[in-house]
Amino acid sequence: MKIRYITALATLAVLALAACHDSDNTPTVQYPENAAIWTALGGDAGAPVGVKTIIGDAVTGLVSDPVTAPYFAAVTSNTSNSSMAHDTVARLEACLNLQFDALLGGPYTYPGPVTVSSDVDSQPEMCQDMTEAHNDVGVPGCVFDEFMVDLVATLQKDLPAADFAALTSTTNGTYELTAPNAAGIPVGTKFQYSTVPILFNLRGTITSATPSGPVYLPPTVAASCAS
Ligand code: HEM
Predict the structure, then answer these.
(1) Where are the alpha helices (DSSP H) in the chain?
(2) I need a labelling partner for 17 at 20 to 30 A (CA). Which of 64, 86, 140, 165 fits?
(3) Structural domain contains residue 90
(4) For residue 196, how far is its CA from the centre of ligand 1 (angstroms)?
(5) For ligand 1, is residue 89 a contact (CB within 6 Å)?
(6) pLDDT value at 1 more than 50
(7) Is residue 91 lining ligand 1, measured as CB closer than 6 Å?
């Protein structure tokens, strides 16, 4: 749950819009090391369409996986068309689209502003960083691990095999995966592109974002959950 102050957000959004462009107004590429992935996905014209499909499928998978779904109940039950207290599904998808457009090497920056046309809140809305976005979700380690297994499965299903192979390539890898995981990737593995390790390495940030600690929602129980 997030208290959002409209005026501050509007000011922030204007500032963020200014920040996403460099001095000659060229959009900033936050992860230039992944530019080849963006090109392979279709570049500025085609890649956002592919990312939208991936995010749509990933969210559908997460809200139907019995382990992760309970943590999204405040979002899926939010029929207010306002993301003031909890995200609407449309806001969640809009922010995930911006984040993955940036992570996959596009001319985007996360956090940043998004327009959520179905929300009644003042537009654009400002997406939050990973600590603030998850500060009341209480994500336990094992649930984060399940989320990542689901996400990788969606990427493998939706991406052409060559693009998935490139995204997960360890050839001349320099971007290190440092977080424990349930995807069978040894800690210390170095990837050619930074997208996958950046996502897995968010484990510590997201599982420690809630000050009161993890919340174990059935079927997840503390006893069998890696923290
Ligand atoms: C690398 C992993 C993850 C990434 C990249 C990610 C990314 C995001 C993004 C971009 C948002 C929207 C932020 C905003 O609206 O400003 C968000 C919100 C949210 N995420 Fe995650 N997330 C991750 C893991 C998880 C996990 C493991 C769970 C729970 C199983 C989760 C549950 C949620 C919920 C419930 C919200 C909405 C919070 C609210 O508005 O009340 N996320 N996440």
Answers:
(1) 6-19, 35-40, 43-62, 73-76, 89-103, 130-133, 141-158, 161-167, 195-200, 203-207
(2) 86
(3) yes
(4) 16
(5) no
(6) no
(7) yes
